[in-house]
Structures are given as structure tokens and as C-alpha cells.
Specification:
The chain contains four helices and four strands, in the order βαααβββα. With 86 residues, it is of the alpha+beta class. Strand 3 and strand 4 form a beta hairpin. The longest helix is centred in the C-terminal third of the chain and has 14 residues. The structure holds FE2/S2 (inorganic) cluster (FES). FE2/S2 (inorganic) cluster binds next to helix 1.
Length: 86
């Protein structure tokens, strides 16, 4: 069985109000072929308070990489890049 790609959706206050309230169920929103390759969990904060640059909420982490200004399309695009590397 292939290892699943781990997606962590931040539901901390800033990320939640800046868009992640619509992405908590991101697995259901992904294209079908990607849906089966991911494992999704929530996180309270992915570390935005430690950033030295101006935070760009909302954040979603994909296999340890933090995606800023996260959206369904940016996460899908990143997942496609991971697929092409594999
Ligand atoms: S509140 Fe989302 S990364 Fe900190």
C-alpha cells in the first residue's frame, strides 16, 4: 500500500476566518484520483506566530511543506507537483 500524503488544515482562528472554514473537508473537494492518496487532519496552528515575514493566512501543510494563502486550487496544484516527482 502506498504511503498517503499528509495534509494538515489549520483551523486556528486566523486561518479559519481567512478561508480554511471552507477547506476543513478538503479531501471531499479534491479530484477523485487525489482523494484516495491523501490523509487529512486538522491542526490548531501550523506555526504562523513564528514567521519572520508577514503571515499570509490561511495555511495548509502538505507533507511538511507550508502552503500560504492556501486554497483548493493551490493545494491541488502542489499535490500534482508531488505526483509528477514520484
Ligand atoms: S493560525 Fe493557522 S498557522 Fe497559525
Amino acid at each position: 500500500m502506498d504511503k498517503k500524503i499528509k495534509i494538515r488544515v489549520c483551523v486556528g482562528t486566523h486561518c479559519y476566518v481567512m478561508g480554511n472554514q471552507n477547506l476543513k473537508d478538503i479531501k471531499d473537494q479534491l479530484p477523485g484520483d487525489l482523494r484516495e492518496k491523501v490523509q487529512v487532519e486538522g491542526a490548531v496552528c501550523l506555526g504562523c506566530e513564528k514567521l519572520t515575514t508577514k503571515p499570509k493566512h490561511p495555511y495548509i501543510e502538505v507533507d511538511g511543506t507550508l502552503i500560504e494563502n492556501a486554497s483548493l486550487s493551490s493545494v491541488t496544484e502542489y499535490l500534482r507537483k508531488l505526483e509528477n516527482k514520484a
